[in-house]
Amino acid sequence: MGPTKEAPVIVDRLPEHLREDAVSLWQEAGLTRPWNDPRADLDRALEGPSSTVLAALGEDGLVGTAMVGHDGHRGWVYYVAVRPAHRGQGLGRALMAACEQWVAGCGIPKMQLMVRTGNAGTRAFYERLGYAVQDTVVLGRFFDAERQAQQSG
What we know:
Oligomer: single chain
Number of helices: 5
Largest sheet: 5 strands, mixed
Shape: globular
């Protein structure tokens, strides 16, 4: 049996009617944390002047996402997720290429992302795309005491 022809996937801004599908995908992919509200993250990204959420759309709806934005100097990407049934088809690579094009189109010279320490498979994916460990330590602080306690616990 020969290779099957996959239906084309379009990467574009997340349509309004697929917002809950995006949050569900992030939860299924293990990208959410109790101290972060993914719906609030989504709202901020879609409403902000320097960010958006890109969607990979196939015949069966939303098959992948990537949140992308910039701080005026560096581009950042978050919530990169592909539905399990669609993995291994180059969609993660296509989403990252779309994010890079979006950031470069804003005149930003560098893209960065964070990978959780124990997530070797994801780190390997990004390394295959040319991303390398930077000599940087990321520090963070929540302004909300409840979130700080959740993250620490």
